[in-house]
């Protein structure tokens, strides 16, 4: 049986259901690499930092995060090369989504159990994202500002909901302003 579309799990309806010894047999997340590009770059190499920020309280699945990272990574590799940037996914996939499989064919009444045992089986993992939470951060050099905006915009199209792109005034991920460090 195939997966449901992403809009079926977009909104946070029930309480958090993490993976534990009560909830076994959860399939692995599709996204396995959370850092891409030049991971070992020093702080002074990439002063420009762009963020994709979510402006809705919703759930993002691992199936949606994977093409987002690939899209942003490919766009930056084509424009700046493999070592000219660093992409960091800042979400953790803790919440388990469950599905009750229902048959829709004729004579399916004898195969289904109905409401007894309707809790469902684990289908995948999602991240619950709050309003104003950063989804993806992209670090690069100052002259690559338009490439950062373009790659985050292309990555933004992979998600449901409303996201914004913010260019930080701070130096990379540090808490220091860029103008103070130049002087």
Automatic annotation (TrEMBL):
Molecular-function GO terms, alphabetical: structural constituent of ribosome
Pfam family, one: Ribosomal_L16
Keywords of the record: Ribonucleoprotein, Ribosomal protein
Gene3D superfamilies: Ribosomal protein L10e/L16
One record GO biological process: translation
Keyword Phosphoprotein set for record: no
GO CC aspect terms: large ribosomal subunit
Family under the similarity heading: Belongs to the universal ribosomal protein uL16 family.
Name the UniProt record assigns to this protein: (raccoon dog) hypothetical protein
């Amino acid at each position: 049986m195939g997966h449901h579309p992403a809009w079926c799990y977009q909104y946070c309806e029930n309480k958090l259901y993490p993976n534990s010894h009560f909830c076994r047999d959860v399939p692995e997340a599709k996204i396995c690499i959370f850092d891409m590009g030049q991971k070992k770059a020093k702080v002074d190499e990439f002063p420009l930092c762009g963020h994709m920020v979510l402006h809705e309280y919703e759930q993002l699945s691992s199936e949606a995060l994977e093409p987002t990272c690939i899209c942003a990574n490919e766009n930056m590799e084509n424009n700046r090369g493999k070592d000219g940037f660093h992409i960091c996914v800042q979400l953790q996939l803790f919440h388990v989504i469950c599905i009750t499989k229902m048959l829709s064919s004729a004579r399916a009444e004898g195969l289904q159990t109905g409401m007894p045992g309707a809790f469902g089986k684990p289908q995948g993992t999602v991240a619950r994202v709050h309003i104003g939470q950063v989804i993806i951060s992209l670090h690069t050099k100052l002259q690559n500002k338009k490439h950062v905006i373009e790659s985050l915009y292309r990555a933004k199209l992979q998600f449901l909901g409303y996201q914004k792109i913010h260019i930080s005034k701070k130096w990379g991920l540090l808490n220091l302003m860029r103008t103070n460090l130049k002087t």
